[in-house]
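Student: I would love a firmer grasp of how sequence relates to backbone shape in proteins. I am handing you a single protein, as its sequence and its fold in token form. I am told such tokens are a discrete way to write the fold. I hope you can help me see how the letters and the tokens relate. Take your time, and here it is.
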Amino acid sequence: MKMNRTRLELFILAFAILACCGCNPDRGKLVFNPGLNGPRMVETSDRVSMKVKVVALDMAIETVKDVTYSMMPKSIDSEGAVTLDVTYEAVHFEAKGLGGLFDGIQGLPNVPKPESLQDPFGTVAMQQSLDGLKGETFTIVVEHSGAVASVTGADAIATKIADAMAIPAHLSREEMRARVLKAYGDEGTRAILQGVFTKGPGKKLNPGDIWQESLTRADLPFPVKADRTYTLRARAEGVLTVDTKTQLALALTGDDMADAGAEPQHSRVELSGEGTGAIQIEEPTGWPIEGNVTAQVHGGLTLVRGLQFPLEATITSTVRSYPKFQAAP
């Protein structure tokens, strides 16, 4: 009898071990697990449309930034972190209306007149030089959770681009280099690409589950902090559909605005608002398929004491990805 009981216990133990061998610890979770399966094309687009009311004048400002990357997984460590080589395949940057804004402001009485307002934020120089990014490659590490842990090589690329720029008269080479490094160096690029990958909460997900993350984008016309809330809407045929709701906030003061002709002690930009969107994600790999978010923000722009201008903006961001040797969807 004792022998039969021992055999039964051994049978149950063996069955449990065999059953667990087929278990996937990531089952039901959102993780980044691309394997080493060849390059992926990732297309991103950011459009910012701003309206500023200067006394009786309504002025429109628009910036567009489209970037296409190819991302090649190179290695996966024991914790599941993936090292990828990322190459800029195409870059388009355009800014419209900034000159008109500052022409209008300079026409007002008692407004200081800086030496040059040909390119107040250096956007024309940026537009002319970002073509130099095409073909440049840097390296990123994406954790199993989908968090972009690090970027290396982007600082060197940003420095190269900044040193090749035609510098506006009111900026020094060092100031322009600092701007480009902030937006497109290692840390700026890490923040940009975190917007491509969706960081999972580290637990199994069911429709209706909610999690959060915070991002800061330094490459937009003004740095924007985003607190994003994700809600899993559906899971079907290997695709996760996730709804997003984003709280946006921006605040600049002092020297951030000085090169636009502002009085540092009185200048300020404050914007806040909310955005909504959705993203589809390949559940087996964690790659985004397609996503979008549109946000409305509003606030004020102050350049000199006593002069504040209402400002509102619409920010639209999209992302999509697909295997490099597959036609774009």
Notes: The domain at 40-323 is CATH 2.30.230 (Lipovitellin-phosvitin complex; beta-sheet shell regions).
